[in-house]
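Q: Convert this sequence to structure tokens.
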Amino acid sequence: MSAATGSGATTHIWRRTFDDSEEQAGCVESLFPQRYFQVGAGRFSGEMTSINLDGVRLFRERVNRRLIQEGMMNVANISWIQGRTGLFRCNGIGLEPEGVMFYGERAEFEVVLDACEIIGVAIAPEALTSHSEGAAATSASVSGGLRFVSRVLAAPLCRAVSRALLTADVSGSVQMPYWQTLRQEILSLALPITNLPEAADLGRSRQTHARVVRSAKRAINSDLTHALGISELCRVIGVSRRNLFYAFDAVLGLSPHQYLQTVRLHAARHALKHLKADKGRISDLAWDCGFSKPSQFAADYKRRFGELPSETTPCPPS
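A:
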């Protein structure tokens, strides 16, 4: 949201609450195409707040259930967990409670997190490049994969982003010319982080686990109608049952059974939310999503999302 407020002041703040994880994932589609899968049981509640500063976006995201977040970055992203107490695993790597992450542009990400608050900044490559040239600094390298950043190095940026979000909460707007000063400050503080070298090789076993999980996910998502069992999944991707379970636990903290059920339940919810299924024929929907017993599907759906399939409200027309 960006709206003029008069007297040279402009609001660059966008804030929205959500009751569905898929809808929350879609609200930042322009920054990083992504999907969310709710793993934790119960009704979802989330919130997204962002401050748009012309190629620099400060954001705060809150979720109340364990999620899998996966996608591809189109921007440089520096983020951290505020007051973390639960699980947080990024690309199969556990993040220290005070840890800060930096994703380069075109980096794939797969995050598993418990209920938490994520704070960060997303920077368009052109904004960072323009600033680095203007500051007579080395050209910012914003491509590549995940890096973990020293809290000491990231502390000034963390403070500036958190302070700006707090100011936005109190005032409800970002005044001109303050937002221009804030933008320059954020870019200057982010520059040393974005110039960090690529992370060292993460090890053969971690790469193997990631590869197994990617192959399994492709097989699972290729045809949800087919009730693919674990034994058949192992045969399709060419791994043992033991290695499959090790890989899923290492990367996602889930068993293959739990992931398979999660994907199927979300496929059913997507169909119901987007009017791609007839609520009067829940048994057909269950079958289409790989559930052979409609009554068990309804029970699993309610346990996961806090409502029966027949109670799911369709999304309003866009």
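The domain at 3-194 is CATH 2.60.120.10 (Jelly Rolls).
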